[in-house]
Amino acid sequence: MAQQSEALAYEPRDAILEAAAWCFMERGFNATSIDDIARQLSATKGMVYHYFDSKAELFFEIHHRAMDALLDEVRPVASSALPASQRFSEMARRYVKTLIVTRHYQRTVSEAVQMVLRSSTTETQRQQLTSLQDRRNHCEALFLSVLEQGIEEGSMLAQRPRIAIKPVFGAMNSVISWYHPREDETPEQLDQLVAEVVDVALKGVMGSN
Amino acid sequence: MAQQSEALAYEPRDAILEAAAWCFMERGFNATSIDDIARQLSATKGMVYHYFDSKAELFFEIHHRAMDALLDEVRPVASSALPASQRFSEMARRYVKTLIVTRHYQRTVSEAVQMVLRSSTTETQRQQLTSLQDRRNHCEALFLSVLEQGIEEGSMLAQRPRIAIKPVFGAMNSVISWYHPREDETPEQLDQLVAEVVDVALKGVMGSN
């Protein structure tokens, strides 16, 4: 499986995943057929099946890439030498921006995971879901550990860090459901929006300095 | 339609809705049958159909009650005489607590609304969905208007209130997906949890006093 997380929608596999993610986002996972995905690509159903066995396989690969995109951005900052509160802010900025930029992947995940969980029956699928859950937990654990370091350093605060991290993630993740790009949105306007969201989302765990 | 929002699971309609909400939460809307709901009630399918024509009708009534429960709690505070920042905090406390207490209703809504939206075809259902959307917007508008008053009073802050309110709601709404009651949780512990969530969720729009 290719590990490139973005901007490589030229390889057939990548193009198929891009098309599938958009279809899942617009129509929902259940309502999307392999035919719809092929049509979106101006390709044949046979071409899609040449690369992916099923809609479930597409979903799992989309989920993996959605998590790769987030972890690739957040992980290097988590282990950098900056003070914890600065690391936390930069991780949050990258996390929210990546959610927005890869929203067709992220929204697919958030909508489909419940459905797949409930209807999935094969042992392999269940193992894949567990591994995906682990990666989501890993992302939250990175933030939690930096929060705990920030509390130790005195620059961050939380009564119970494990509780406090939940509304922080809720605030950040909310962009998946409400963000819609304005037609004429500039990169600067997007960065400004990300900064405003991060500011509101993090203040509850930032020291009052 | 009865308007009682809670603690009245004794009338048949209420008992059916309670059972349906739990089933939808545990199994998902799609995977739940009227048979499952009847079984949960130790009643017959015929009894359920005596009160509700379809699963969709149950869903709409659950959604209405979920919104009633939130609006009934939040609305009186929004128009009270307290300073805006205190009103906002109290609205948030009631909102989060109600989300938790009525989580089987709220989780049904958040999971099923996308699915129903996509598969619903009848004109009546579409009208109902629009009216439900209006009520969700109304709840957010109440918070937004108090935030704007708080900014005017100088006790609250936001660069763009319409943006800032989104992560605040994301933080509050997150309880629907992560809260699970501990077996021995006391009412005081629940209130403490609500206070911690509200504290983190709101600090981003509270003045630094």
TrEMBL record, chains A, B:
Family annotation (InterPro entries): DNA-bd_HTH_TetR-type_CS, Homeodomain-like_sf, HTH-type_TetR-like_transc_reg, HTH_TetR, KstR2_TetR_C, Tet_transcr_reg_TetR-rel_C_sf
Record's keyword annotation contains Transcription: yes
Keyword terms, alphabetized: DNA-binding, Transcription, Transcription regulation
Record GO terms (molecular function): DNA-binding transcription factor activity; transcription cis-regulatory region binding
DNA-binding region: 33-52
Domain HTH tetR-type: 10-70
Source superkingdom: Bacteria
UniProt xrefs under PROSITE patterns: HTH_TETR_1 (PS01081), HTH_TETR_2 (PS50977)
Protein name in UniProt: TetR family transcriptional regulator
